[in-house]
Design a protein that fits this description.
single chain, 6-stranded mixed β-sheet, 1 helix, 7% helix
């Protein structure tokens, strides 16, 4: 398997069904009490629908799908709306990790380029750290202090350690995905147009 690059950004998607997948083990005792635990991270997946495309628009996408070879090879993909920060400072924000953090942490100290107190991220925004490909979601609004520093609350917990000053991608965040199926169906029409959608899932 290999990483084959970034999924084509044009013509883009017309709809995105986004899923959060968490595996929880549940055991119920004779008294009715439930014990719940998880030993795996949350993974993201989705169904991405293209608008009806011309052959010229579709062929580069089909070529990329050929490179993916079904579920074999992975790629980065930016999902409309989902990958975009909703903060008013999204387009100008630059953020880095402040101090070292360990796998399992859910609160990450960050430094930003904001010149004072302001909103860095909104609850539900996603981020990706430079040293690994897992995507995390902010669980609260992230507001900086007068020095531009803040605490980033995330889920799921870190799957890798973080080093000081690691860059954080906070807008147009790419997911590292594979196709969910080895068989891909292309809807060629006699009027020269093509319909297509893909199922994708996050890989680590």
């Amino acid at each position: 398997m290999a990483t084959i690059g970034t999924f084509p950004s044009t013509p883009g998607f017309s709809a995105a069904g986004f899923k959060e997948n968490t595996i929880t083990k549940r055991t119920q005792t004779a008294s009715g009490r439930q014990i719940r635990a998880t030993n795996s991270t949350t993974l993201w997946s989705g169904t991405l629908v293209f608008p009806t495309m011309s052959l010229a628009e579709f062929r580069p996408i089909q070529a990329f799908i050929a490179l993916a070879q079904g579920t074999l090879n992975e790629f980065d993909i930016v999902i409309p709306i989902v990958s975009e920060s909703q903060s008013v400072n999204a387009s100008a924000l630059s953020a880095t990790v402040d101090g070292a953090h360990s796998a399992g942490d859910t609160t990450i100290n960050i430094s930003t380029n904001l010149g004072g107190a302001g909103n860095a991220l909104k609850a539900g925004d996603i981020v990706r750290f430079a040293n690994h490909t897992k995507v995390y979601m902010a669980t609260t609004d992230i507001n900086t202090d007068v020095s531009g520093n803040a605490v980033l609350n995330i889920q799921p917990a870190l799957v890798e350690d973080l080093s000081n000053a690691e860059a954080i991608t906070t807008n147009n965040v790419p997911f590292r995905m594979i196709l969910s199926n080895d068989v891909q169906e292309f809807g060629y029409r006699t009027d020269g147009l093509v319909s297509y959608e893909i199922d994708v899932e996050e890989v680590l």
